[in-house]
């Protein structure tokens, strides 16, 4: 009787083992099937791409245009110095084109290649409008290089502008690499706007210090350090009508607490 029970237990264990093996086999087949399906799906996508997926999107854009999503309005804000013809050339937009076919990132990238454009923001306003916001570079001076004048912005970027008429009021920066350091100096010189307007040129001497020349050819030699303090002395002379004297050719402030006057 005892032997029969043992045989029955062994038979049950054998059935469980076979069942477990079948489940593992089915699971493996399922996983394998999923992998095969995924592989075939990827192949299908590649095949669609091979058949030129651009045509598929062209149809989508055309269908969206038929529904009324077309470019009818274009607004541009922030433009002051950028050339209109250059902007139009870079935009490459046509009235009535599908508005979803316009790549905003591509527009932004192309606009920021224009030398005056520092940043550009492009937004799509459905169903008919694209808004463009331009942040232009800030001109602070004219730079002289190879006997040619360039516009210098507050980051030291040199802008090649054919027409300088709007910028001839800016001082001329002279010296190798002067455009890189000019902004910090100009911020000091602008503390007296009236006096700043009388500056003709600013020369970077030996890449260490600056000479400021005014419209009447008076030259002020600034020190390497404590430029702000030295400029305050110049402002004080100007306010006391002691700066632009007819017999003075230069004022030397290179030595701290000393003012040397050079006569004509």
3D structure, described in words:
The chain has 264 residues and is of the alpha/beta class. The chain folds into three domains: 28-67; 70-136, Ubiquitin-like (UB roll) (Roll); 139-263, Rossmann fold (3-Layer(aba) Sandwich). Helix content is 41%, strand content 25%. It has helices spanning 2-50, 53-66, 84-91, 104-111, 178-189, 193-196, 227-239; strands spanning 73-77, 117-125, 129-136, 139-145, 148-153, 158-159, 172-174, 199-205, 209-214, 219-221, 248-252, 260-263. Strands 6-5-4-7-8-9-10-11-12 form a nine-stranded mixed β-sheet, covered by helices on one side. Strand 2 and strand 3 form a beta hairpin. Mean pLDDT is 84; it is low at 1-11.
Summing up helix and strand content along with how strands pair, one would put the structural category as alpha/beta
What portion of residues is helical? 40-55%
Total strand count, please?
12
Q: Span from first to last CA?
A: 135 Å
Strand content: 15-25%
Largest beta sheet: strand ordering: 6-5-4-7-8-9-10-11-12
Query: In the CATH classification, which architecture of the largest domain applies?
Result: 3-Layer(aba) Sandwich
Tertiary shape = elongated
If you average the pLDDT, what whole number results?
84
Q: Tell me the name of the CATH homologous superfamily of the largest domain.
A: Cell division protein FtsQ/DivIB
According to CATH, what is the class of the largest domain? Alpha Beta
Major sheet summary line: 9 strands, mixed
N-to-C series of helices and strands = HHEHHEEEEEEHHEEEHEE
Unreliable spans: 1-11
- Domains, number: 3
The CATH topology of the largest domain is given as Rossmann fold
Q: Radius of gyration in whole Å, from Cα?
A: 37 Å
Helix segment tally: 7
